[in-house]
Amino acid sequence: MPARVTPVERAVDALRLLPLGDLAARDHVRTVRSTVAGEDELVRFFRLLDRLDVDRTRVESDLAWVHGATSGGERRAALAQLRRGLEPARDGVLRHLAAPPGDLRFIVDLRAALMSFLAKRADVVDLAPLDEDLRAFLGARLDLGLLELRRLTWADSAALLERLARSEAVHAVRGWFDLKDRLDEDRRVYAFFHPALPGMPLAFTEVALTDETPASIRAILNPDAPRVDAAVARSATFYSISNCEPGLTGIPFGNALIKHAVELLRTELPKLRTFATLSPLPGFAAWVRALGERVPTEVRELLGSPAWHRNAAAASSLREPLLRLAARYLTAVKRADGAPRDAVARFHVANGAIVERLDWRADPTPRGLEQSFGVMVNYRYALDRIAANQLAYATAHGVEASPAVKALAAADPTILDDLPPTISRRGALLAAIRGIAARAKRIVVRAPAQA
After folding, report:
1. What stretch of H or E contains 240?
2. Residue 145's pLDDT is what?
3. DSSP structure class, residue 228
4. What per-residue confidence (pLDDT) applies to 225?
5. DSSP line for 256-315
């Protein structure tokens, strides 16, 4: 006997064929939304979506038409049909699910669930290309030009502030008093909102207004630190950027977030002269450990001693070698594609920032010591150089650094040749899957030309 068709399968099959906005589609959308619940049901639904890919036979036929076109008009028509044929069949279903009575939030939640499964279940790693397709689908519908930047204050709703505290990914919020302190007059929190997801903050950044650029996260988060009159502050330091929605990971809201916030700050507080960050180096300590015996013996021994950071003599001995290594790590250590190894560095230098200063023992928390031996970095957004720096990075992954950071990097004697890149097992697997998928698509596209 043939397998029994489930209600979700019937609904998806109908949504593939019905035009967007058709009243008959609404019942099918409700069926999907009400039925797809629970981990096993979600995985089955994801596999159903994954099968709704491009029609290879149609693509090959369209390509043959493109290559056989005898006039400019015919070629343009063939290319237009080819573009339509390259759209996965699942996109039509997703458009229905993102329209009333569904909403785009449903797709965001679906992708968040898929990302969670990919991180914890070995039996779904083949769905990694589907995750990329969902990211592209969401990115195409969240036009960055429609983003609205809002300053959040203590007067905002408790639900919104609670969401803010829960989403903080860099420096955990330690209760309502801590949150209130981050919303004070010499502090700012800016969040992006989008009309496609009303009332839902997508990403936010936290800013400290000070006289000088802070060299320690303790100076920013200390509730007893002296308050600064925001009207006369000279420096704005972005010390946290967080994504509120896991399902929107990989959509570049953060690239625009700092620049929009800078423009608002310049308008409100014209005395501001310096716009910088106080940022972590999340991969630095792991990279240093991977160097093994290339790191001087005395440095390795001190780092291996318990509570070295509480020993003034040990910390003093480690300061210069670790800062030199950190400068090399940020300016010279690259991935296979030529981009900086450090994820935070990639974000800021691609956004036009300069590696301005390294800060010793700037983050003494257990997490800070584990990921970077407590070292942090100030990236400076020099407004007159952002465009040139962005172009240099886009062209050749150029990393702009201050003379002080360059001098530290030049003073480091460590030989870095042939150091294998550090990559997680999951990252390697996902990269391999994406590579296979990309090669398969190229085979489909090239087949008629090779015939």
Report:
1. strand 235-243
2. 86
3. -
4. 86
5. HHHHHHHHHHHHH-TT--EEEE-EE-TTHHHHHHHHGGGS-HHHHHHHHSTTGGG-HHHH
Domain with CATH 3.40.630.150 in the chain: 279-420
**Domain boundaries for CATH 3.40.630.180 within the chain:** 144-277
What are residue 209's DSSP bridge partners? 236
Tokens coding 389: 């720096």
DSSP string for 305-367:
STTGGG-HHHHHHHHHHHHHHHHHHHHT-B-TTSSBSSHHHHHHHHTT-EEEEEETT---SHH
pLDDT at 224: 87
- Report which of 48, 131, 123, 36 is spatially closest to residue 93, judged by C-alpha positions: 48
Looking at residue 241, its pLDDT comes to 92
pLDDT over 70 at 423, yes or no: no
Average pLDDT of span 207-234: 93
CATH number at 279-420: 3.40.630.150
Q: Which two tokens stand for residue 297?
A: 């013996």
pLDDT score for 422:
45
- Choose the CATH number for 7-53+88-141 among 3.30.430.20, 3.90.550.10, 1.20.140.90, 3.30.930.10: 1.20.140.90
- Phi, psi dihedrals of residue 210, rounded to the nearest 5°: -140, 175
CATH 3.40.630.180, applies to 144-277: yes
Which is more confidently placed, 278 or 433?
A: 278
Structure tokens at 48: 């159903």
Taking alpha carbons only, the member of 89, 133, 126 closest to residue 110 is 133
Cβ burial, residue 265 (10 Å; 0-12/13-18/19+): buried
Question: CA 56 to CA 344: how far, in whole Å?
Answer: 39
